[in-house]
From TrEMBL:
Superkingdom per UniProt: Bacteria
ABC transporter domain boundaries: 22-254
Keyword flag Lyase: no
PROSITE patterns: ABC_TRANSPORTER_1 (PS00211), ABC_TRANSPORTER_2 (PS50893)
Cross-referenced InterPro entries: AAA+_ATPase, ABC_branched_ATPase_LivF/BraG, ABC_transporter-like_ATP-bd, ABC_transporter-like_CS, BCAA_Transport_ATP-bd_LivF, P-loop_NTPase
Protein name stated in the entry: ABC-type branched-chain amino acid transport system, ATPase component
A Pfam family this chain is assigned to: ABC_tran
SUPFAM superfamilies in the record: P-loop containing nucleoside triphosphate hydrolases (SSF52540)
One Gene Ontology biological process: L-amino acid transport
CDD domains in alphabetical order: ABC_TM1139_LivF_branched (cd03224)
Family membership noted in the UniProt record: Belongs to the ABC transporter superfamily.
Annotated keywords: Amino-acid transport, ATP-binding, Nucleotide-binding, Transport
């Protein structure tokens, strides 16, 4: 299985046929003179959940942020829905129906839950606000009970739910999730992964998920990529990677950071 997964990765033919919704080609990103991404190729097709796994510091979050325009790719090309977004400003990318729930949640702690959700919606017109609010409150009943509570007073799990809900308020076609399970209790992690699955299956939402929790991410994802120090080293279906001995040894059997 390991050789199959690796060969597939080398040939770059894991993806289903057709134009990808998101395509990353030869992307190199630097912090000063330090190269963080060393020529990354990756595709996300419409309706897929694709996950990127790897150890801490592998460059996963850097790739997520580069897609969103900060930092910028110094080399290579990023296209979304057939349009080159490599040099676009972050606020312009956000208007293209891509939403990001960044690592560390980054909600507005002094604002109420309701105000945080308004901030997510304000990227677009507010015409659907009530409808979208009802939708996220159905997905996250805990938030419904806490609409007038300040974001900073919520538990870690509730803040993560709020970060995802805020991203959903802009009605994205592509949802970028950076480490949604980080620092959360296993029960909350399970809930959040179930919600991601529901968004994909019921709403057809395309999701690109960066995760350290390789087991949950690969069980959920249609396809996955493995990143080691700024390089994609392997790709395959979620099932292939879950069963791959190298992936198991590195990320699923105590070698998982």
């Amino acid at each position: 299985m390991s050789t199959a997964g690796t060969n597939i990765a080398m040939q770059g033919q894991v993806s289903p046929a057709g134009q990808p919704l998101l395509s990353v080609r030869g992307v190199k990103t630097y912090y000063g003179n330090i190269i963080a991404l060393k020529g990354v190729d990756m595709d996300v097709h419409e309706g897929e959940i694709v996950t990127l796994i790897g150890a801490n510091g592998a460059g996963k979050s850097t790739l997520m942020m580069t897609i969103f325009g900060n930092p910028r790719a110094r080399e290579g090309k990023i296209t979304y829905a057939g349009q080159d977004i490599t040099k676009m400003a972050t606020h312009e990318i956000a208007r293209m129906s891509i939403a990001q729930s960044p690592e560390g949640r980054r909600i507005f702690p002094r604002m109420t839950v309701f105000e945080n959700l308004q901030m997510g919606a304000s990227l677009h017109n507010m015409a659907h606000f009530d409808q979208d609010l009802e939708r996220v409150c159905t997905l996250f009943p805990r938030l419904k009970e806490r609409l007038q509570q300040r974001g900073g007073t919520l538990s870690g799990g509730e803040q993560q739910m709020l970060a995802i809900a805020r991203a959903l308020m802009s009605r994205p076609k592509l949802l970028l999730l950076d480490e949604p399970s980080l620092g959360l209790a296993p029960l909350i992690v399970k809930q959040i992964f179930e919600i991601i699955k529901e968004l994909n299956e019921k709403d057809g939402m395309t999701v690109f998920l960066v995760e350290q929790n390789a087991y949950h991410a690969l069980k959920l994802a249609h396809r996955g990529y493995v990143m080691v120090t700024g390089n994609i080293t392997m790709s395959g279906t979620g099932k292939e990677l879950l069963e791959n001995p190298q992936v198991r040894a590195a990320y699923l059997e105590g070698g998982h950071h």
